[in-house]
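Recap from last week: sequence in, structure out.
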Amino acid sequence: MRQSETEHSTAEDRAPGWDAINHALNRIYPRQEPKHYGTLIGLALGGADPLPGISAYKRITPVPHWHFVTYGFSELYEKQSDDPQLSGYGFELTLRLSDPDDSEEPPAWALNFLQNLARYVFDSGHPFHAGHYLNTNGPIAADSDTAIRSVAFAHDPELSAIDSENGRVEFLQVIGLTNEEEFALKRWSTLKVLDVFKDYLPLWVTDLERGSLLADSDVAARLAEGSAREGSSVGMIYTDQLSWEQRKRLLRRPLTQISIGARQVGELLALLPLRLPFGHAFTVVGPDARIVFEPAARNSAEAIDGALHLRLDDRAMRSLVARLRAQAGEYEVEGFPSLLLQVQKTEIRAQDGSVEQVIG
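Predicted structure tokens:
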């Protein structure tokens, strides 16, 4: 719902956190009155939407776009959180959305999307941070065929962190990505990949009409060189299907049997060689199980505090990557005869536009 300028002014008079955000925006848009949408009553105060308001500023440079800014992740009114350094969750979200048609109003789906991200944070209690990414389980704009189906978070390139009466607030920009680009983040580093993308996406403007940046050979080469040089910064993935057990055997080492869903095998195979050879562990987490893959001079499997620590030498790691496939079956690892991996068929879940999982 569009707020009137009178309602907005009333809110500013009694909201020091709101004032601090407006002051930061006025430095960038000193002569523009934003289009503001909200009820002034967020979810925490009994309203239907989590965020009391979202402002949208119209931009021409460096490319035509709408610049959205949220109000409500931070404390707009009285200080209530226990952390004296942070205002609420310590951030507000921004989104820059391409506007090639010079529209009079920003698209409603973008406002709904930002509210849905707020619902995720408010319901889970897990805030976003620069370097996080998530998959939206479908097109970022519902009922569209856009290839933008994932988002990452980085500090807004024009809005520095501010200090309000209620504490510090950062501005985290939501950056739309394709699934292929999201996978590139996993293979290297979210912020380093976004830094490469910034050369091709001015101010990280989200464009629903574009294809994958990895179709550009220069982009693909820069990302491949980075991951080959530094490995992956992603130390953990999640899966719906994961279990393990160890069974005693007469006169032989116990058999360690791992079961994983086929859906996650591709990520496991892609990321293990970008973690273990660089001396970093890699963890797979399921609803009721956790497996930590670790680089080691000798192969072993040990249960520690309910998690399986699977230590692999270079030969075993390479064999696992070479033999394992994303199809149902049993797979052995060369040089590790007491290990057996089972891949289970994964049922395809309907895409419903929900947030999947935030990864840092």
